[in-house]
Amino acid sequence: MPLVEPFGEELLEMQGWAYWSYWIGCGEIACPEATRSVIVVAHREDPAATGFPKGASWVEKLRIVVGWEPMSQPVVDWPATEAALGTSLPNDYKGIVDLFGAGGFDEYLDLLVPGVLGMDLVAWSKGDAVHAAELWQPHAVNSARHGLLRWGASEQEIDFVRQTGRPTLTTGRCSCSTTSVIGSNSTAALVSSFCACSRTCNLDIPRAT
């Protein structure tokens, strides 16, 4: 990656962000006298300008946009996970987990992944059921028909949830300023579907194409 190439073994830490046709990095390198902070700007191909491969899936487009290089990830037993949750999961969500694994996007959206300690999708669902009365009223949690299933979270206390049992639903509903509800295409919330209002409102959430 161009952000780290100039430093070799001197590099201690580097975090990078994609911004249009640039990589922007901030990190630390080892120097004889002490560590030193560095900021790096490097060129990158802008997917918005170069376009996507014909027939690329939405997950593949997301991979290209964030500049992710695929690597081996733990295999998720999706049938067992869906049986434990009592609901099916969107293919886009499963595709993102299979491709990216555990982690977060831009240190903002942390993905809940089955079997990952502290961020286990099934464990969080069970915990939400315990606190159902104080979470998303008047909406139910996943255990109820059309209940809400949390699939992501952020340190800003924004919850990313999916309404279950409605495979063709494209309209979400936000019950407070810290909740995002999405329909059949859960991954659309990665780019556009959180609501910052302080009252109940309707969100029109387009399907990714």
Question: What is the arithmetic mean of pLDDT?
Answer: 75
Low-confidence parts lasting 5 or more residues at pLDDT below 50? 168-209
Number of extended strands? 10
The DSSP helix count reads: 6
Distance, first to last CA: 29 Å
Give the neighbour order of strands across the main sheet: 4-5-6-7-9
Q: Could you estimate the helical fraction of the residues in percent?
A: 10-25%
What coarse outline follows from CA principal-axis ratios?
elongated
Major β-sheet profile: 5 strands, mixed
**Within the CATH hierarchy, at the fold level, what is the topology of the largest domain?**
SMI1/KNR4-like
Rg, Å, rounded? 19 Å
What class would the helix/strand composition place it in?
alpha+beta
In the residues, how many domains can be counted? 2
Going by CATH, the architecture of the largest domain would be: 3-Layer(aba) Sandwich
Order of helices and strands: EEEHHHHEEHHEEEEE
The share of residues in extended strands comes to 25-35%
CATH class placement of the largest domain: Alpha Beta
Structure summarized in a few sentences:
The protein is 22% helix and 27% strand.
Description:
Mean pLDDT is 75; it is low at 168-209. This protein is 22% helix and 27% strand. The radius of gyration is 19 Å and the shape is elongated. With 209 residues, the chain is α+β, with helices and mostly antiparallel strands. It has two domains: 8-49, no CATH class; 53-204, SMI1/KNR4-like. The strands form three sheets. The chain has a five-stranded mixed β-sheet, covered by helices on one side. It has a three-stranded antiparallel β-sheet with strand order 1-2-3, with no helix packed on it. Strand 6 (148-153) and strand 7 form a beta hairpin.
